[in-house]
Amino acid sequence: MPERGTMKSKSGISKTMAVLAIIIIVIGIVAAYYILNPYTTITLNGAGATFPEPLIKKWASEYNKLKPSVVINYQGIGSGGGIQQIKEKVVDFAGTDAPVKDEEMTTGYLVHIPETIGAVVVAYNMPGLTGTLKLDGDTIAKIFLGNITKWNDEKIVALNPELSLPDQNIFVAHRSDGSGTTYIFTDYLSRVSQEWANKVGMGKSVDWPVGVGAQGNPGVAGLVSQNPYSIGYMEIAYAYLNNIPYAWIKNEFSGEFIEPTLESVSKAAEGFLEEMKEDVRVSIVNPPHPEAYPIASFTYILLYKEQNVYGARTNFEKSNALLNFIWWVVHEGQEYSETLLYPRLPPEVIVICEELLRSITYNGQPIITS
Questions:
Q1: Nearest CA to 303 among 155, 31, 138, 83?
Q2: Strands 230-235 vs 110-125: parallel, antiparallel or unpaired
Q3: Which pLDDT belongs to residue 36?
Q4: Which of 107, 119, 221, 279 could be cross-linked to 260 through a Cys-Cys bond (beta carbons 3.0 to 4.6 Å apart)?
């Protein structure tokens, strides 16, 4: 008969071996998981323009369905805010409608990736109006300069003889933040009105002669929705989503009033595709195409050309995930554009985007090599 001490010793050894076996199994499961999933979650943070925000958020949602390990966050804080945050290296990418000049790139070279094209519309709230308002550039400038203050002003009436315009004061709404939408709108006004160019000019922020300011495209849409007899400028998706009517704008070259549609906005870009091979930072407002909507623009994603500028905040895997997402945006992601009233990128621009993305490096080595 075995001694009692020997039995206890064997029992202890069995228990130890069982625990070790469990530990080995757990380690094996965890190791297998990490082999199959080299990272659990990569979070990509972006901020900037509200102009493309509805589309960027749609892209983020759809891409996460394809790549659950990649989470994309985007905050619409205005182009100015996005540019500031990427310069401060707070975000991984920024959205802007206002291109950054080379001399402004004080923290590293920022590659501009055209992500989509959009229209800035002149939206209005005129109770009881039947029919669509028509405006030309000079009249819009005079309204935002405060030279035209009534809806039944003779200049507006002359452009809209079929409408019954009210004897009401015009409530003007504009952006209060640093805004790419403002940059596009004031770029247009500066090209069609010498008075505007001399007195106000163009920029992400300007000294507005009249009106009430609001933060972001959603803020301006809110002001126009809530104030009868108001007028304001915003990206078309915000007018569409809030059921706010918007004016047809006169094409200075054809003399025709153009409705902002996917086709008319796309035509605005047609004459600039060759120029974009040299530099994608182009203005397409007041374009020469006779059927083009006059207030349109490319909007851009900003990325550091050398991704290792972030230091410990990033690594090759994160930079690779970021570029793979942007590659998807300019290819498969374009199928989500038109439902939100953004035209698809022209094929010629997609080729340019591919070249730009291949130019981005990590420690001097290209991230995308195929």
A1: 83
A2: antiparallel
A3: 47
A4: 119
